Amino acid sequence: MEHVQPTPARHNRLIGKLLLMVAGAFVFAFALVPLYDVLCAATGFNGKTAGLGVGSGEIRDGFGVGGLQSAAAPAPKVDTGRTVRVEFTGTVMPGLPWDMRPLTISLDIHPGELQQVSYLVRNTSNRTIVGQAVPSVTPGQAAQHFEKIECFCFSQQTLGPGEAREMPLAFIVKPEVDRNISHITLSYAFFSIDGQRQTLTSSREAR
Amino acid sequence: MITATTHAAEHPAEHYPGGLMRWLTTTNHKDIGTMYLTFSLIMFFVGGLMILAVRAELFQPGLQLMKPEFFNQLIGVHALVMIFAALMPAATGFANWMLPLMIGAPDMALPRLNNWGFWLLPPAAILLTLPFTLALFGIGDGALATGWTFYAPLSVQGGMGVDFAILAVHILGISSIMGSINIIVTIFNMRAPGMTMMKLPLFAWGWLITAFLLIATLPVLAGAVTMLLTDRHFGTHFFDAAGGGDPILFQHLFWFFGHPEVYILLLPVWGLMPHVLSTFSRKPAYGYKAQVYSFIAIGLLSVVVWAHHFFTAGMPVPALIYFMFSTMAISLPLAVLFFCWIATMWKGAMTFETPMLFAVGFIVLFGIAGLTGLILADVAADAQYHHSYFVVAHFHYALFAGGIMGVMTGVYYWLPKWTGHMYSEKLGKLHFWLTVFSFNLTFIPQFFLGLAGMPRRIPDYALQFAEFNAISTLGAFVLGISQLLFAWNIWCCVRGGPKVESRVWEGAEGLEWELSSPPPHHSWEIQPVIK
């Protein structure tokens, strides 16, 4: 072994400060998680629709939960001077043996009008499964003005073996939406709520 | 120098364990530097072999050699190996070898930590590549197949290769943070009397900024992959939209580390360049203070520009504009560096030994990386070029021409100092010309492929991309094979060769050239005084 002298005190003081910086940076990474949610809710960044918080139940706010408050709100003025095309799409995530498709592909609407569409969702397996849909609106700037009055994404959905169901959605695009926006896309991702995560590998094996 | 040599003579070699134990237990900065550099060279070839397999698959359209899953594993592990196991250890090896010699310190400040920092690397490298071997025996489905960026949700769903890579990144991160703490303490506390911060060699300045960037950003990466691990196994939902998380958050966390990482890889090289350029131009480095302030400015800017890596993920327009302009602002201090490098050569008595050839090649090719980076930083243009081969070519100009050719500059510059032998200049020059030629042959076609719309990370492609891909693959194989010259030249130089003086190069200035070549095992035990 070589002779290693004990670390001088001035080294230890500097090491202490540097370790504090390391710990601070590690904590900062986790602090970014709530900070990011606040940022998204404030800006509609990333397609998260504006959260109202009321009646959101088990769903965290920031996911555009309309609920009671919106239903009680006075009907907004309809802006008949322009039309916005709203397109509907949906994806079923791996690990959930369901099919989903929008019964209306797209809709030309005036901002402020109350509209209703529905998705057809079918369980292709022979067991009862619970799923949860998570919405996302593109472009992000429109997300804050896309208000869902009634939506199958407000609660978990249960489908029996082979069961198919039309799932309704009522929404208003508020007249405040930016005039430059002519197309809005609403996309749903349906996730399995089995408690047990299915990896890509296991779903591949299942097929 | 005389005191140092006599001191080494008082401790005969028998005093230290020989053979393997010497290397396992060493706390000597020169031994540890040698181990870092050796490890780096080995992993450079490991990462290179992986990408040659990828280029072989891309030689022609269609799938000839491998399944797409294996292709994805190769590109991701290639990047992790090259960045974390080849480029970063090479820079740390330089720091270990040269910092104490340059600043007149007897060793690094924390020698035991130094030993531990190195010996964490081989286990991490094994963790990273083990899933390939396990898959051969039917265990698991191979290594990480998400690309080196670990993007969620793919990384949340991926096989056990992702877990191996997460743990490897944790270990590599711990090693790098320990190395950084060691380097900062050494530079702050161990400088020779009279060496003020503004007399510090530029190489030490470059490394100082790198070390601070590592301390500020690597823990964020560690946090992000920890979240990934808990998402995968412990039921959290940081990146899982079904549970209220957000996959885009991962991109923010990853690139908060990932962009400074680019400068972490490059700053030691930028620090080294003025030494080489001034030696072979026989003039002092131009604009010492300007270079120091540019290093600091680039270090600060690098942590506030991360989102330019995913402009297309969807962002409010003000955010796009902010990240575009802050990214472009980095070109200002970088342009100052380029100006200083060129001004150092201006009207100098230049000669073109191997290290100088690599340094000049570095300036030209790294300039291309900077200019194409400006194109990618443009939000409107990026909408077309994002995730195309244009990006691949751009960052290889930055990290191969900027990073690896910079490291080769350093190796050719300091190898005679380390070994006491001169390498073959003829082979070195041949290596340079082959590398520059084949590097451009590999990556210029990739710019065109990207402009034509070929996406990156795909094992198969449309027919119109066939010619450029074939050229690129040819270039890659020449590039890979030419690196054998590099390894051979180093091997021969370590084994023997013409003896060199303490001042290896005629124009070299600095404390490191006052010591004999090779320097004694213990150097600067009595610190020199700088006037």
Provide a compact summary of the structure.
Chain A has helices at 9-43, 67-72, 140-143, 200-206; strands at 84-92, 98-102, 106-109, 114-123, 129-138, 146-151, 157-159, 164-173, 183-192.
Could you walk me through the main structural features you see in this protein, from its secondary elements to its overall organization?
Chain A has helices at 9-43, 67-72, 140-143, 200-206; strands spanning 84-92, 98-102, 106-109, 114-123, 129-138, 146-151, 157-159, 164-173, 183-192. Chain A is α+β, with helices and mostly antiparallel strands. A five-stranded mixed β-sheet of chain A has the order 3-1-9-5-7. In chain A, strands 2-4-8-6 form a four-stranded antiparallel β-sheet. With 531 residues, chain B is mainly α. Helices cover 70% and strands 0% of the residues of chain B. In chain B, helix 13 (331-345) runs antiparallel to helix 14 and helix 17 (425-452) packs antiparallel against helix 18. The longest helix of chain B has 36 residues, at 68-103. Residues 1-14 of chain B have low confidence and may be disordered. The chains are: A alpha+beta (207), B mainly alpha (531). The interface between A and B is large, with 51 and 52 residues.
Q: Biggest interface, which chains?
A: A-B, 51 and 52 residues
Report how far the terminal alpha carbons of chain B are from each other. 17 Å
Counting helices, strands and paired strands, the structural category of chain A is alpha+beta
Helix content of chain A: 25-40%
Number of strands of chain B: 0
Major sheet: arrangement of strands of chain A? 3-1-9-5-7
Shape of chain B: globular
